[in-house]
Amino acid sequence: MPVTNKDILHWLQRSTQVLHENNAFLTQLDSAIGDADHGSNMDRGFSAVITKISGMQEADIGTLLKTVGTTLVSTVGGASGPLYGTAFLRAGMATAGKQHLEGAEIVAMFEAAVEGIKARGKAQAGEKTMLDAFIPALEAGKQAQLEQVPVTELLQRMAGSAESGMKATIDLLATKGRASYLGERSIGHQDPGATSSWLILQALADTVAS
Length: 210
Ligand code: ADP
Ligand code: MG
Ligand code: MG
Known about the structure:
GO terms for molecular function: glycerone kinase activity. This protein has 210 residues and is mainly alpha-helical. The chain has helices at 5-21, 23-33, 38-53, 61-75, 80-94, 103-121, 131-146, 151-168, 192-209; strands at 3-4, 100-101. Helix 4 (61-75) packs antiparallel against helix 5, helix 7 (131-146) runs antiparallel to helix 8 and helix 8 packs antiparallel against helix 9 (192-209). The chain binds adenosine-5'-diphosphate (ADP) and magnesium ion (2 copies).
């Protein structure tokens, strides 16, 4: 079963709810190694997204995701606004005109998003950022696609790898973003952006599973 534009709408709604519920948690993580605003940034951005897309029931997936990207860029600010904004814009370009996505198209969508984050933030794997959730998720998605597993399982594997990657950020030294100002003191804390990335990927797996 492919992922439909309705699934994408439901994913965005679920993400909004999950990010709202985790506002305090994400802010707590950001208070340890940043400026204590990641929860409110994501909550504000996605509640604006939900308002924007509420009338877009018939829109294709690319149009939906591009709308998410422009909304996040204009409402979130900080580091994560342009980074998530670019991720969704690139994901939207990769899915332009599509009403549904098969496994290979889902992987291509995430590949475009990851390339966008890398280009925008000049970061790579292992720098204690959202990429440390996204890159393992993308690798898992590629592997699942090689094995031709159903889309539900592909998305579950991606979310599981994002979660492991998120947990692995605890031991990493931050070399990008505000957390890098702390140097060695950034070690021992989970990255807030990797955490929101996992929440968003888990929301997609849960949406398509149910
Ligand atoms: P700010 O740091 O401007 O307050 P947020 O708190 O909303 O923005 O987001 C912080 C998160 O952004 C970090 O936890 C990290 O995951 C992510 N981040 C910061 N810089 C980069 C970068 N150059 N590349 C990828 N992700 C980054
Ligand atoms: Mg912050
Ligand atoms: Mg900030």
